[in-house]
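Dear support,

Our group has been running a series of protein-ligand predictions, and this particular one with N,N-dimethyl-L-histidine is the one our PI (initials K.S.) wants archived with full inputs and outputs. We had some confusion internally about which version of the output was final, so please treat the block below as the authoritative record. The input we submitted was:
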Amino acid sequence: MSLPLLDIQLTDADADAALRADARAGLTAVPKHLPPKWFYDARGSELFELITELPEYYPTRTERALLHRHVDEIARRSGAETLVELGSGSSAKTRLLLDAFTRAGTLRRYVPQDVSEPALRQALDALSADYPRLQLHGVVGDFTRHLDRLPRGTGRRMIAFLGGTIGNLLPDERAAFLAGLRSVLEPGEQLLLGTASVIDESVLLPAYDDAAGVTAEFNRNVLRVLNRTLGADFDVDAFAHRAVWDAAHEWIEMRLVAQRAMRVRVSEVGLTVDFAAGEQMCTEVSAKFRIEVVREMLAAAGFSVQRIWTDPDDRFALTLASAPGP
Ligand code: SAH
Ligand code: AVI
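Confirmed final output from the archive:
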């Protein structure tokens, strides 16, 4: 059994500088906002795993069922030697792909990339015990910044981007991400993309506002990250969780709502931020996609769609696309 490699492309100092810049920009904007990647410290990653088990949160189990049904066809259509996964988290669902590629006999290497070092280390520990013959090469990195540093040159790659995480990027970020990904792929290399679909608000909203309050804790966790990392003094419990369906943009917006007027000091950034009672700060968008929009965004980035699979209730889609030859 070989020990997993861990490549740190996003150092703590780099992450702190990026968080400072995002906090300064987002907390001084009108309306205030913060990017969702900062949810995921060790506790945030654990809370996300708890979310995936909630009765209301259908995306993970729907995507898992889709993978379960189609992984062998995906592996057959691919023949990749390296599976790269962006925003891999616990890599739990990915095991279905690893098993199918192993059955197909092509896979030699798995490269999970995530901003959350604790989640990545935990995933690598578990995988190295269960997949002793697979080369594991973890990358602590940001998929909005480090795509050009993904390992290459060791056989054909498939890039998996699962969970619907592409929906957490804003439209401009999403387009830049897909174009950037396309530009680092060789002809014939593939993308396996998971997207949550536009469905009825009565199913969507509870998935982001569960009865047990786990999503609320996940949402408030970004304030705990700011308190710990930037010496902020947010009274975390003075912010309420709110999820809203924005029908015009076809996305869920998660917000934190100040329950009273507050003055917050973010000492490491030298910022003093005032919240009015009832003021709302956006902490995440989670876009849902119609199939035609998935096709359009992939085509605009220069991908060629090979196959799309959906579940019987049309709640989620898995799309296999490739980088065309010259
Ligand atoms: N793919 C897994 C996890 C989804 S949760 C699944 O489908 O269940 C989103 C994951 O993306 C988290 O593990 C988070 O740490 C990671 N993430 C969020 N923003 C990121 C970024 N900009 N770069 C790399 N990873 C990111
Ligand atoms: C990671 N991402 C796809 C999740 C989502 O559904 O947008 C994050 C999440 N936010 C609230 N619950 C889960």
